[in-house]
Specification:
The chain is α+β, with helices and mostly antiparallel strands. The protein folds into 2 domains: about 10-285, no CATH class; about 305-485, Phosphoenolpyruvate Carboxykinase, domain 3, CATH 3.90.228.10. It contains 12 helices and 22 strands. It has helices at about 10-15, 60-70, 85-100, 110-115, 160-170, 205-210, 245-255, 270-280, 315-325, 345-360, 380-385, 410; strands at about 30-35, 105, 130-135, 135-140, 150, 175-180, 185-190, 195-200, 220-225, 230-235, 255-260, 285, 305-310, 335-345, 370-375, 395, 400-405, 425-435, 435-440, 455-460, 470, 480-485. The strands form 5 sheets. It has an 8-stranded mixed β-sheet with strand order 1-10-9-2-5-8-7-6. A 5-stranded antiparallel β-sheet has the order 13-14-22-18-15. Strands 16-17-21-20-19 form a 5-stranded mixed β-sheet, with no helix packed on it. Strand 3 (about 130-135) and strand 4 (about 135-140) form a beta hairpin. The longest helix is centred in the last third of the chain and has 17 residues, at about 345-360. This is Poly [ADP-ribose] polymerase.
Length: about 500
């Protein structure tokens, strides 16, 4: 069962800048086995990779890590899990997200359950009182431990929410889901005797990769598929002045203490950090006195973006010119420039999306189409640097998504003359992976994803030929290829 939780997303939205983000290549520590201090340095290969077991000191942690990361072993009975404890259900869902959908699991669940094995319940509250409402926004009571699962979807970002809901449905779990710009928020088992929990499904895109933030050292851990005894760090804090190792983080969790690694005076995150500190202390955690400076985000890998002028003698230039002249026939048109966009990061995500669609279909090229998209204002730079982010999606006749057309005249209405730049307009010629396409000739304004078993929508207007619209709903399926600057 699915439903809307429009208010509940607002509560977590305010913590966006300090919400635990998934690791990326520039700042993460890859997963490794925990090593007792007494043997540190004696059980590593020349490459520095720990190769042996950590004996019994971390055996309980390793067991719980394996239960959510070992894709070869199912540690629960899918036909009986609905009768199990809340924590057993969360472990089962964690295994599904990590092993079936290739997510990284991080945040509070890794801290509180996989490492700490803590359970907390609010005093004098029945299960049906666990969900609280502040100014009409919904969230779980702060004393509930563990509270949620934070999952970072894989790079291609094409895991269909319906597939995930189907898997949870097989476990006889009920789910309310809300789609946000960069994630899904799921409330699971809201009306069951064991009590609800939430799942954050973070959708990857370049905008999130640009920086990572961290609040406390104990929130810096993650686990991933088939690293069955291993913990990783989202952000490297092993260097001075922090010098915090995995083993130190685990020790702090076991002793209910933490280091503050974020500035409380920063705006707008300072207030949220203070709230998080108070929440930890309410749960019995101790803030260590060491006055460590805030961890400064590394900024991530620099965006390798290049706009390369297309020679007016080239075939691609001439084809675009012909298409534009034909579309704007009878109207004054001036092509100012045609530039090819080179964006290594977007290209990589796009190819990952193609591979994912190829696995799901018999389409060797992912059903790639060359389509047009009109843009204006700041969205122009956002598109060629970061791609078609969810936050620039618009609502149209077929719901909220990225809209394209095979007719540049149709997307002209989505542009706007830049008064500060001689009234120039911009249209992008875009490579779009349509995959399996659902065709509609009637409006479906409530869509937030392609229909089940489909990757995109083709909307038609029977009375308006040459005005078809093509819509995708997932980041990574579209690659801005050519930037066309013109006047009309």
């Amino acid at each position: 069962m699915t439903g809307d939780l429009d208010g509940s997303i607002q509560y977590k939205q305010k913590a966006l800048d300090i919400k635990a983000q998934a690791a990326h290549k520039s700042g993460a520590i890859p997963p490794r086995i925990l090593v007792p201090d007494s043997t540190m340095g004696t059980k590593k290969s020349k490459s520095g990779v720990v190769s042996s077991s950590s004996n019994n000191m971390y055996a309980d942690i390793e067991q719980r890590i394996a239960q959510v990361t070992d894709s070869t072993h199912l540690s629960f009975d899918s036909t009986q899990i609905h009768k199990a404890s809340r924590e057993a259900k969360m472990m089962a869902v964690a295994w599904i997200m990590v092993c079936k959908f290739d997510c990284r699991l991080y945040g509070g669940f890794v801290r509180d359950w996989i490492v700490g094995h803590f359970i907390g319940r609010p005093k004098n509250k029945t299960v049906d009182q666990w969900i609280q409402y502040d100014n009409s926004t919904a969230h779980l009571h702060p004393e509930i431990v563990p509270a949620d699962l934070d999952c970072y979807l894989p790079a291609h970002g094409l895991s269909d929410i319906d597939e995930i809901l189907d898997e949870l449905g097989k476990l006889q779990m009920t789910v309310n889901v809300h789609r946000d710009q960069w994630r899904y928020l799921l409330f699971v088992d809201q009306n069951t005797p064991t009590g609800p929990f939430t799942i954050d499904l973070i959708i990857p895109h370049i905008g999130i990769h640009k920086y990572d933030r961290i609040d406390f050292d104990v929130n810096n851990l993650y686990v991933e598929k088939n690293y069955t005894k291993h913990l990783g760090m989202r952000i490297d804090i092993t260097y001075a002045p922090y010098s915090i190792t995995l083993e130190k983080i685990v020790d702090n969790i076991r002793k209910n203490r933490f280091y503050l690694l974020a500035g409380v005076k920063s705006t707008p995150c300072g207030k949220v950090i203070v709230e998080r500190i108070d929440k930890m202390k309410t749960r019995g955690w101790q803030q260590l006195d060491n006055a460590l400076p805030p961890v400064v985000p590394s900024g991530g890998p620099s965006s390798n973006v290049e706009l390369k002028p297309v020679p007016n003698t080239s075939s691609i230039y001439q084809k675009i010119l012909q298409k534009m002249n034909s579309a704007f026939s009878g109207n004054k048109l001036e092509i100012v420039s045609i530039e090819e966009i080179k964006n290594v990061e977007l290209q990589s995500m796009y190819e990952q999306a193609r591979k994912q669609i190829q696995k799901q279909t018999s389409l060797s090229d992912g059903n790639e189409m060359m389509l047009y998209h009109g843009a204006k204002g700041e969205n122009i730079e956002i598109i060629f640097r970061c791609g078609f982010l969810d936050r620039i999606y618009r609502y149209g006749n077929w719901g909220k998504g990225a809209y394209f057309s095979d007719n540049p005249k149709c997307v002209h209405t989505r542009t706007f003359p830049d008064a500060n730049d001689n009234d120039k307009r911009v249209i992008f010629l875009t490579k779009v992976l349509m995959g399996n396409v659902q065709k509609f000739n009637r409006h479906k304004i409530n869509l937030i994803s392609a229909p089940d078993k489909y990757h995109s929508v083709h909307g038609t207007f029977p009375q308006l030929p040459n005005s078809d619209e093509f819509i995708i709903y997932r980041y990574g399926q579209a690659l801005p290829y050519i930037k066309i600057t013109y006047k009309a």
